[in-house]
Write a structure and sequence with these properties.
Radius of gyration: 22 Å
Number of helices: 9
Organism: Candidatus Uhrbacteria bacterium RIFCSPLOWO2_01_FULL_47_24
Number of strands: 31
GO molecular function: transferase activity
Structural class: alpha/beta
CATH architecture of the largest domain: Alpha-Beta Complex
Pfam families: GMPPB_C (PF25087), NTP_transferase (PF00483)
Strand order of the largest sheet: 5-4-1-6-11-8-12
Strand content: 25-35%
Number of domains: 2
CATH topology of the largest domain: Spore Coat Polysaccharide Biosynthesis Protein SpsA, Chain A
Protein name: Glucose-1-phosphate thymidylyltransferase
Helix content: 10-25%
CATH class of the largest domain: Alpha Beta
Distance between the termini: 53 Å
Keywords: Repeat, Transferase
Shape: elongated
Largest sheet: 7 strands, mixed
């Protein structure tokens, strides 16, 4: 299996205002675009060619991904003709690029750090036409849900009111070229999209050789702000902290506790406490502040007189809040400034690019 189709389009309305100005798949988790984790997962599975589905007119992803040479693979972006019409439409749109070969279809907003090599092995060993990955979740109503009878997958129901199980369809699909028959045969759902669940069910009903696996370890669909924060926590919990200070300038009154990664050119001075896991980018200035666990801070960020934890801070942010910030996502070039002392402590912020907020 040499090819993969990586979905990186869509509107990501649940992540606005961040996604008004940034493709969702470029949102940083642990200071790295989330799409990079999907690429790394595919590369570990032996993929050599990756076709990235993007929205019509998309330009930013192409600049960030390049030709794939940094991962020693070939990457080509392809526009979804007709706009976002569902996941099955993405597959149909990519047929001329995939050709008559098996491939992995991978949703770029999935976060999974475990290998999918076992899934590829099962697909090849059992000579499957389709292999799907499922995960046990608390609220499966928001996903395609598996109906399994005596261990056999009989159908997938998209966003069911009464789920037949707690096994949600994750964004990892292995297909033979026969999937192209399915995506051409199905009709749009009531919401006007070509559902991948319908295509998968069509494959099952037509008697093709279908298998399924449970995702090992942890899986997350990063569709909402709280999902992004949880994904950030998970990645930072498993992050390899190497060369953790990189020659950063650390003042005498600075306390560093736990696992910390600090980029080159960063200054920590005056009364600063950093309690990991924390990742701080390059050329930042942090003074008279507390940086708490599960906080990732981008490059060229300045933080003064602020406590912040369990948050994602993009590049070029300026924070001088005089208060405590928790569970927040602060977009590129945003400024958070203190107008006066306020109560209660613990403001929650989801701030888009170029925003200025006084609290």
């Amino acid at each position: 299996m040499r090819k993969a189709l990586l979905a990186a389009g869509g509107r990501a309305t649940r992540l606005r205002p961040i996604t008004h100005t940034l493709n969702k798949h470029l949102i940083p988790l642990a200071n790295k675009p989330m799409l990079f984790y999907g690429i790394e997962t595919l590369v570990k599975a032996g993929i050599k060619e990756i076709f990235v589905n993007v929205n019509p007119g998309e330009m930013e992803l192409q600049k960030v991904l390049g030709d794939g040479s940094r991962w020693s693979v070939s990457i080509k972006c392809i526009e979804q003709q007709g706009g976002p019409l569902g996941l099955a439409h993405i597959v149909k749109n990519a047929q001329s690029y995939i050709g008559n070969e098996p491939f992995i279809f991978y949703l770029g907003d999935n976060v999974i750090l475990d290998s999918i090599g076992h899934m590829v092995e099962k697909f090849q060993r059992d000579n499957l036409d389709m292999c799907l990955a499922f995960a046990h979740i608390a609220n499966p109503k928001q996903f395609g849900v598996a109906e399994i009878v005596n261990g056999k997958l009989v159908r997938i129901i998209e966003k069911p009111e009464n789920p037949p199980s707690d096994l949600a369809q994750t964004g990892i699909y292995l297909y033979s070229p026969k999937i192209f028959e399915a995506v051409k045969a199905i009709q749009p759902s009531p919401r006007g999209e070509y559902e991948i669940s319908d295509a998968n069910t069509w494959m099952i009903e037509k008697g093709y050789n279908v298998g399924w696996v449970e995702v090992p370890g942890w899986w997350k669909d990063t569709g909402k702000p709280e999902d992004l924060l949880e994904g950030n926590q998970f990645i930072m919990s498993h992050f390899r902290f190497e060369d953790n200070k990189n020659g950063a300038k650390i003042g005498e009154r600075v306390q560093i506790q736990g696992r910390i990664q600090i980029g080159e050119g960063t200054q920590l001075d005056e009364n600063v406490l950093v309690r990991g896991p924390v990742i701080i980018g390059k050329n930042c200035v942090i003074k008279n502040s507390y940086i708490g666990p599960y906080t990732s801070i981008g490059n060229e960020v300045e933080i003064y007189n602020t406590e912040i934890e369990n948050s994602i801070v993009f590049d070029a942010v300026d924070i001088n809040a005089g208060t405590r910030i928790v569970d927040s996502i602060i977009g590129y070039n945003a400024a958070v400034n203190s107008a006066h002392a306020t109560l209660p402590l613990g403001h929650k912020l989801i701030i888009g690019d170029n925003t200025v907020v006084e609290i």
